[in-house]
Give the backbone structure.
Amino acid sequence: MCGIIGLVGHPDSQVGNTLYDGLLVLQHRGQDAAGIVTSDSRNISHRRANGLVRDVFRLRHIQALQGSMGLGHVRYPTAGSSSAAEAQPFYTNSPFGVSLAHNGNLTNPEEIIDTLLERDHRRINTSSDSEALLNLFAAEIQRSINGRRGGLDALSEEDVFRAIRAINETVEGSYSVVTMITGWGIVAFRDPHGIRPLSIGTCEIDGFTETLVASESVAMKALGFERERDVAPGEAIVVRMDGTRTSRICADSTSHTPCIFEYVYFARPDSRLDGVSVHGARLAMGARLANRITDEYPDHAIDCVIPVPDSGRIAALELARELGVSYREGFVKNRYIGRTFIMPGQAMRKDSVRKKLNTIRHEFEGRNVLIVDDSIVRGNTSRRIVEMAREAGAKKVYFASAAPPVVHPNVYGIDMPAKHEYVAHNRTSEEVGEAIGADWLIYQKLEDLVESCLGAGDSRLANFDCSCFDGRYVAGRIDQAYLDSLETKRKDSAKA
C-alpha cells in the first residue's frame, strides 16, 4: 500500500510545496519512504529517501524542486526491500525522461523483467515491481516513436494510450499509477479492476485549470481542489503541461472491484473512494455488528463500548448507539508512533504497541467493556489491548472486529503476513478470542461488510475484492505456487 499524487499546475507555479503538503495528508498510506519529482519545460528536480515526509524534506529540498508539474509518493513496502534505492518516484532517462509513482502490487513482475531484458535490453536495478512497470511504460513509449522525427514534440496522446493498452494486456495484479514525461505532461492510469484507489480533481487559477490526481480525495480537499471523480478501471488520463486533458479506456474489458480493506482500515474516514464514503461505510459496519451482537448475545451485559483509536472509532460510535450503551474513550494514543500494522517485522510492531496506547483507568474499572477494532490480523495489538483493559480494572473484556477473520494473503499491495502468522489461521472465532484473552469475540460477517460499503456510496459498484477474507483473487494467475513464494517473502523471520 502506498500513497501517490500528481499535479499539473499553472505554468508560473512551483508545485513542490503543494506536493509536499499533499504527501503529508497521505502519510497514513506509507511510513517507509517518501519522494517528489518535479519538472519544468526541460528539466527535472528529484528528492527521495527513507523516512516520513517531514524527515525526508527540509526547506532547502522543497525550494530545489523546480517546475510546474510533478509527482509524489509515500512508500509502504510489501515483500520487497526497504532500501532507499526503492523509494519512489522512479526515473528513467529514455525516452525523454519518464518518472513513475505506483500504488499496488504486480503479480507477474518476473515475466515483465525477463521480457524487458530480452526484448528491450532494459535492466532493472532494484527488486521493486514499480521499477519494472516504469521501464515497461517507457519501452512502450519508445516503440511508438521509433523512427519518428521531432523528438518530444512528436509524442502524442495516441502514443500514450497505445502504451497503456499494452501494459493492461501484459501486467497482472493491481496498479494505480501516475507518470510524468519531462516537459510534456503527466499520465494517470488504473488497472482494469480498479483495485487500488485513484481520484482526480481540478482548481481554477487565473484562467488555468490545474489538475490533481491522488490516491484519496482527502488530498484534494486539503489542497483546495474540487474532487471531480474517480479514475475508472482501465482508464488512462493525459494532462499536458498546457492544461489540456484527454482520457480513454485502454482495456478490452473491465470489472470494477476495489479492495474492501481500504474501507476497513487504510483510507482516511474523510475520503471518498469509488463513490463510497469511508466514514459512512464504517458507521454501517458498526450498526451491523450491533445487530449481530444483539442476535448472538442478547444478554451481553455490556456497560460501555471503547474503540481502539483511530480506525475502530467510527464503527464503535455507531455500534454503541445501536446497542443503547455508553460510548467511552478509554485509550489515549501517542500520535507520534506510526501505524503498527504497516511496520515491518514482529519485534518492531510489538515494541510499538506497548508505546502507542495508554489506558484511562476510570473508563475500565469495574465495567464490562466491549473493545472495537477495525480488524484483527496477527493478533498482537488485540492481545496487548485486552491485557491493558484488564490491568485497568475491567471486570469483563469483550472484543469486536469490524471486519471478518483475515485468513488469506492479500496479493495486491497490502503486507498481510505469512498465512501461519494470522491469529485466525486454523482457529475458530472462539479460539481466536481465547488467543487474544477476550471473554468473547465477535467478527463482522463478510456479507455484512460488503453491504456496509455498498450502502455508503452513490456509485454502481457491484462488489469488491475481498480476497484476504474469502481467498477469491480478482486479477492475476494466483495459484498455490505463487502463494507459497509470497509466504516465504512475507514471514516475519524474513524481515527481521
Q: What stands out?
A: The first strand starts at residue 3 and ends at 8. Residues 350 and 380 are 7 Å apart (CA to CA).
